[in-house]
Amino acid sequence: MNKITILGSGRVSRSIAAKLSLMGYAVTVGTRDPARTAADWGAPHIRFASHSEAVQGASIVVNAMAGATSLAALSKLRAELGATILLDLANAMERGADGLPARLMYPEDSLAERLQQALPDTAVVKALNTMAFMVMTDPRSVSTPPTAFLSGNHEAAKAAVSSLLVDLGWSSEWIEDLGDITTARATEALALLGPSIVRKRGFAPFAISLAR
């Protein structure tokens, strides 16, 4: 059975954990307070552990933590992550006065690139960061087929992430490999659209789609 670890305990983590568990994956959620998260979730089929314990033995680790704190948190796990695949979903944004993301934290490059630099033995793959969280696990919830963009230096890791996305409900035709990790600059910049869309339409499912 494939072992997947999801770091973070918010709604993104909860949605992905539920879907992957349903698909037969052995899911561990890494959180700062495992006992409290386990009690809050009430999900006996999911294992809860500290961040460092959770990543051990995982085939893929999903970064579902806040983008603003991801680099610092994941850098501390360099030894534990080792040669693991890290699927990075986060966008590192500073918030504006209304509480919504307003500015990129790393406008000269990207969070994904900085994670790859900090974790040289780990295969970082950027994906699923150009959509509302509910579309990540239910891509057919939007009327137009969405696009899941992939960025990463490791072809085998991107293939493994693509397979995981298919299990999350994505058609392989909706997955677009952009190239190496530097291409994450483009998709992270697209995150600036999100707050404007939410202000205009409310917090409803949406995603960026590549018209072919």
Task: Explain how this protein is built.
Helices cover 37% and strands 20% of the residues. It has 212 residues and is α/β, with parallel strands linked by helices. The protein has a single domain (3-201), classed as 3-Layer(aba) Sandwich (Rossmann fold), CATH 3.40.50. It has an 8-stranded mixed sheet with strand order 3-2-1-4-5-8-9-10, with helices on both faces. A two-stranded antiparallel sheet has the order 6-7. It is globular and about 40 Å long.
Number of strands: 10
Number of domains: 1
Count the helices. How many?
10
CATH topology: Rossmann fold
Across the major sheet, the strand order is 3-2-1-4-5-8-9-10
Layout of secondary structure:
Blueprint: E1 3-7, H1 11-22, E2 26-30, H2 34-41, E3 47-49, H3 51-54, E4 60-63, H4 67-75, H5 78-81, E5 85-88, E6 93-95, E7 101-104, H6 111-118, E8 123-126, H7 133-137, E9 148-152, H8 155-167, E10 175-179, H9 184-190, H10 193-201
Parallel strand pairs: 1-2, 1-4, 2-3, 4-5, 5-8, 9-10
Antiparallel strand pairs: 6-7, 8-9
Helix pairs in contact: 4-6
